[in-house]
Design goal:
The complex is a heterodimer. Chain A contains 10 helices and 9 strands. Chain A is an alpha/beta fold. The longest helix of chain A is centred in the last third of the chain and has 18 residues. The chains are: A alpha/beta, B alpha+beta. The interface between A and B is medium-sized, with 32 and 25 residues.
């Protein structure tokens, strides 16, 4: 069973021309896929479709064996909560929650994910943060507003990784980081997903990052609408 | 739900200034609504508890509210008087147990003077059967003895032995003073929270005595030449009085006695059953009460609209927050519920704070209100009514919260995970 399988996908915003038309895309379980593409090429929209937040106009999006069109909206939400972890570009954290509160946030909506954790979610959050290099207790007690962008992205990664999700989706998570921080962050992410066996779908406009991953594709290669626009 | 409640609470704390201002707006609105109700019921209770144990109030024929206000609350004047002969007739009825004659007319520095008999101190009851008690001194015995209410003593600084000069009618002092016949305070009553506190009580005979020489309505200078010893030989029995409080031997005869007095053939009289008089009074004041309640209810609506505005204006800047919640597994229903919970929390905190404001305010300012306006409004503890008001405000906030909740819901569906704020 593939982690993600897309066939005959078509999606557009409203009644405008379709933004995405993908004949086929398959991501194997445990694979670390790099998806590159220019801004506005539909990368984030594709992630919205894969996470079940957006619904395809036509075609099949199958995630972990679940055809997203055939399950209800609440089942899609549950699938995302229980089995996926998502990292955004920036402004990734809820400013009114503590570092630990942000990391454990997803567990509040996913009882099964919480059950997969040995011990308390807080202890697991601390363990993950430590693996990502955030061990300073004073820092953990601080408001997330006081963290640097790099530290915020590591907290966001810990939130995506807690409870061992089957798929980790990262949407331009390194665009606000300098080159050194960016590479360290990707290495940590790849290492952690490899350790848990999670599938990683990493999206960025920066083609230079491709060497960190098992496979790299350009969205323009799979999206026939992009080819039309070109 | 606990997780959402925690999120709603922390989100509100994060928007501290807006949340506090919204809560204050709701609190003030609820305080006004509850306060108006407390004052309304307090005033009603004060009025009702002013008189207890009296079966009938008898006066010259007039409206029953007019007689009630004049005889019991010392507000306004009776349209006419009752002759002393009629009073004696009524007092002698076999079904009558006791009577209290009341004669109103003069004042002392704005406080009404009541001419009455010793029966007043024996039979007058207020607040479900409480009798008058003396804080100091005794009831009047001599012709120029006066018993003053607690507020008179406190406000004017009078004690036992203080002298006071009555003023003719309800005018200010000056040429209409009865300065030739000053009174001496012999007794001070304990506070009652009724108009008794603001009354100067003297004997009926004293009222007659100070009006010797005032038969034409103005002072006759020759009256001053009458030596005091001569007054003792005068018949000071009043010719007429303002009203009579009547206590019956049996409640069963109430309606018959009332009918007899109303059809008394020597004089046009009216006998008012206090509860019926109060009933008519509430009917009159009911319109103003309803208007007041409506105004305070509208203020509550304005308070609720502030909640709506506060949440609606925050929606745009919170699209990223919604996207993060959606990404970690929250459904649109969770986003919807989060908005509703925020509205409910603002309303609940504002509502509770409003009730605390009212009861705290009453506890602090109650004595001042009583002293200034003579109205006793018990602070006590919040009760079922207050809980219902807070509940209704929370419910209304939930209904109002449907709008921003629906907008957040639809935006979170449309935005998905792709918001770039």
């Amino acid at each position: 069973m593939d982690a993600i399988r897309i066939e005959g996908l078509r999606f557009g915003w409203g009644k405008t021309e379709p933004l995405l038309e993908i004949e086929t895309l398959t991501v194997a379980r445990g694979e670390r896929l790099f998806l590159r593409g220019a801004s506005g090429s539909g990368k984030s929209t594709l992630l919205g479709l894969v996470t079940g937040v957006l619904a395809a106009d036509a075609g099949t999006v199958s995630v972990l064996g679940n055809d997203l069109a055939r399950i209800s909206a609440s089942e899609r939400d549950r699938l995302r909560a229980e089995r996926m972890g998502v990292i955004f570009q920036m402004f990734n954290l809820l400013p009114y929650l503590s570092v630990i509160g942000n990391v454990t946030l997803g567990c509040d909506f996913a009882p099964k994910r919480r059950k997969r954790i040995d011990g308390s979610t807080q202890a697991e959050a601390r363990r993950l943060l430590a693996r990502l290099g955030l061990t300073d207790e004073a820092l953990l007690a601080r408001s997330v507003r006081d963290l640097s962008v790099g530290q915020q992205q590591r907290v966001a990664a810990a939130r995506a990784l807690i409870g061992g999700p089957d798929i980790v989706i990262a949407d331009e998570p390194t665009s606000a980081l300098d080159a050194g921080s960016r590479d360290r962050f990707i290495e940590l992410l790849v290492e952690e997903t490899a350790r848990t066996g999670a599938t990683l779908l990493f999206v960025s406009h920066d083609a230079a990052l491709g060497h960190h991953f098992d496979r790299a594709i350009d969205i323009g290669e799979i999206n026939s609408r992009a080819q039309v626009a070109a | 739900m606990t997780a959402l409640l925690r999120l709603a609470w922390r989100s509100l704390r994060d928007r501290f200034s807006t949340a506090v201002l919204t809560i204050v707006a709701v609190a003030v609105a609820v305080a006004l609504f509850v306060g108006v109700e407390k004052v309304r019921t307090g005033v009603k209770e004060n009025f009702t508890s002013t008189l207890s144990g009296t079966h009938l109030i008898v006066g010259a024929r007039t409206g029953q509210v007019n007689l009630l206000l004049a005889a019991v609350f010392r507000i306004g004047n009776a349209s006419a008087n009752v002759t002393w002969a009629t009073y004696q007739d009524i007092a002698a009825r076999p079904d009558v147990e006791w009577t209290i004659p009341l004669s109103l007319g003069d004042n002392h520095r704005g406080y009404r003077v009541l001419g009455t008999r010793e029966a007043y101190f024996e039979h007058y009851r207020y607040a479900r059967g409480r009798s008058l008690e003396f804080a100091e001194g005794v009831q009047f015995d001599g012709l120029y003895d006066a018993v003053i209410g607690a507020q008179v003593a406190r406000e004017l600084g009078y004690g036992i032995g203080s002298e006071l000069v009555l003023t003719h009618g309800l005018g200010a002092g000056g040429i209409t003073d009865h300065e030739d016949r000053p009174f001496r305070v012999v007794g001070i009553l304990k506070p009652t929270g009724t108009p008794v506190d603001r009354t100067i009580h003297v004997s009926l005979e004293a009222i007659t005595a100070i009006h010797v020489g005032w038969e034409t309505g103005t002072r006759n200078p020759l009256a001053d030449t009458i030596p005091e010893e001569m007054f003792a030989q005068f018949d000071l029995t009043p010719k007429d009085i303002t009203a009579i409080l009547v206590g019956l031997k049996s409640q069963k005869t109430l309606l018959r006695t009332q009918r007899d007095i109303n059809t008394y053939n020597r004089e046009a009289l009216v006998a008012v059953i206090p509860s019926q008089g109060f009933g008519e009074l509430w009917t009159i004041t009911g319109i103003a009460e309803t208007a007041l309640q409506a105004v305070s209810a509208f203020v509550v609506v304005v308070g609720l609209v502030t909640i709506l505005v506060s949440i609606l204006t925050s929606l745009n800047e919170r699209r990223r927050e919604m996207a993060i919640l959606r990404a970690v597994g929250a459904g649109p229903g969770h986003v919807f519920a989060l908005m509703l919970l925020e509205a409910a929390l603002l309303a609940l905190i504002g509502g509770v704070l409003g009730v605390v404001l009212v009861y705290g305010g009453l506890a602090l300012l109650g004595p001042w209100v009583t002293q200034t306006y003579g109205v006793v409004i018990a602070a006590g503890w919040p009760g079922v009514f207050d809980a219902k008001v807070v509940g209704a405000v929370v419910l209304a906030a939930l209904v109002m919260g449907l709008w921003p909740a629906a907008r957040a819901f639809s935006r979170s569906v449309a935005d998905g995970l792709t918001v770039k704020v």
